[in-house]
Structures are given as C-alpha cells and as structure tokens.
Amino acid sequence: MTRRQFEAAALATVLTASVEARATSEVIARQAPAHYRLSVDGLRITALCDGYLNLAHTLFPAATEQHASELAHAAFLTPGPLPTAVNAFAVEAGGRLILIDAGVGPSRGDTLGRLPAEMRAAGLDPALVAAVLLTHLHTDHCGGLLDADGQPVFPNAEILVAEPEWQFWSDPGLAARAPAAMRPMISVANQALGAYRQRITRFMPGTEPIPGIRSVALAGHTPGHTGFILGSSNDAVFIWADIIHVASYQFPHPEWGLSFDVDQTAAADMRARTFAQVAGDRLRVAGMHLAFPGIGHVVRDGAGFRYLAEDWRPLR
User: Which of 12-21, 32-41, 192-201 has the weakest average pLDDT?
Assistant: First the structure.
C-alpha cells in the first residue's frame, strides 16, 4: 500500500466512524415512536404519548415539602420538577377511528405536541379520525385539536364533550371570575371549540356518546371531567382521564389534590372513591398522566393505594 493509499484509507475510516457516531447519536437522542396496542371486546385500542410535562411539587397544596421529597425519593425520582406523561388513546371500532383526548398541541415546549406524529407512526391518519371524545377541556387534552396556524388537526372529526364541561368553559363570564393563571386555559379551550363549532356534540355523563363506549362522571378536577369504559368483559379498560397526575404522590395520598383542580375537595373525594372501586372490582385502568402507556391496575396498600403497571402483552 502506498502512502497516498494509506492516508486515503485512514481518512475514510475516520469519516466513516464520524458518520456512524453522528448517526448513532441522532438515533439515541430520541425515543422510538410511543404507541402501544391492545384489543378489548372487538375494540382495537392504541395508547399514544403526546410527550411529558414537568409539575412542581408546590402544585400539591396538601403536601409537605419533606414528605413529598420522601415519596419522590422512594419512587427513584430525581429532585426537582416531576415528569408527568401526557397520553391519549385511539380506538378503532366498527370501522371508525375515534380519539380520546388530543394532547397539548404545538408551541408548548420541546417535550410535548407529538401526538399527530405518533399517530402516523402507528399507522393512524389524523385526517381519518371520525370523532374526538374529550375527557375535559384543560389545555393538555384539547390544545392538540389545533395546529400551529390555528387550523383543525382532525378536519373530519366530530368533537364530543360532556354537557357540564361545555357549560363551564363556554360561560362568557368565566374569564372575569377565574384566577389569572386559569385564563390561558380558558382561551385555548374556546379557540379549540370555536374551530370545530359546526361539529360539536354534547352528551350527558353516564350515557354512551359512541356505541360501546360508556361515559362516567368524574366531576371535581373540572365540573364535567369524564372517563370512558371500553368493553364489557373482564378485560374492559376504564380510561379515567385526570383522576391522578403524579403516581408517587396521589396513590398513597388520594387527598392530595392539584392547585388547578376546579374543586379540590370534590376531586380528592372522587379520586379516593375511584381508587377504591377499581381496586375492589379489579378493573383495568388507563390514565392520561400515568407513565406511558398508562395502563394497569390499582390495589390497596395500607391506608392508601398502589399502582401496578400492566406488563407488556402481545397483541391478540
């Protein structure tokens, strides 16, 4: 080998190593697409991750700093803000594609707004969504109805929202009465609903807004906070929306509510009753803020409760 050939070979080796290192770096800098599927009584359910947000422990007024720190440490969480998943669920039923919640939407930080891309990665086209069931109208559930230009992300979808939730957020006097921190959420909710105003259907909690999907009133977090039960067999899944936000805090302490619960007392009572019911019934739950894919069971644990994430299962 001549000197020139040797130098060329050496350069090629360096460049190849550099490209491989860069490619590896780019790959490991992001997670794989976040979707997880299961089948329940003829329904195909896909858990989707819109991303995550960080919650400060100070958002839990009943939590003492020391005890909150102890619980976080016991859950192997690093000191500081609490990473909290933002999930949504797609349901394929009777040839229709239904979405339960829409995520946060664009321009809300680097860790959020991934739902449309995750849907496409799962083979689900946002343009084919026939209906979006909203558990409630907080920004991390309805903000994703719009893109960065304020246009509908789901152009062919009917939007279904519980009547009490609609009445609360569409009240023209709400912004004037609400705390300043709540006003951006009011604005987002009304922008999102306004873009779909010709395609909004309101339903009463306790009914089936879509055949085979039963709604459950979970008022407290918001006045029309609603869950949905998918299926009727022992494999049924209860999508309980925002019954919980931080597992390490609220399973042992259902009484620990969030400062942005509209009615903290009612929310805490609903959380405790819901935990007791699903634990007693051994009902599988799915949550918007449980660690992705957000599916598991609740069991009693002393005076509180504990969450058992469901093991990975092959699709049947």
Answer: 12-21
Same domain for 121 and 168?
A: yes
Nearest to 90 by CA among 51, 149, 48: 48
Alpha helices (H) in 57-138, listed in sequence order: 65-74, 115-121
- The one-letter amino acid at 89: F
Please tell me the number of Cα atoms within 13 Å of 297 on its side-chain side.
Answer: 14
**CA-to-CA distance for 216 and 237, rounded, in angstroms?**
12
Domain co-membership, 40 together with 78 = yes
Domain count, the chain: 2
Per-residue model confidence as pLDDT tens digits over 154-202 = 999 999 999 999 999 999 999 999 999 899 999 999 999 999 999 999 9
Retrieve residue 17's tokens.
Answer: 């190593």
- The number of helix segments (H) and strand segments (E) in the chain equals 9, 13
Is residue 103 within 8 Å of residue 59, measured between CB atoms? no
152: Cβ contacts below 8 Å, ≥ 6 apart: 145, 146, 195, 196
Residues 215 and 255 in one domain: yes
Residues 19 and 120 in one domain: no
Query: How confident is the prediction for the chain on average, in pLDDT?
Result: 90
The pLDDT, as a whole number, for residue 110 is 80
| Residue located via tokens 């049947």 | 316
Q: Say if 108 falls within a structural domain.
A: yes
In the predicted structure, residue 36 carries a pLDDT above the cut 70: yes
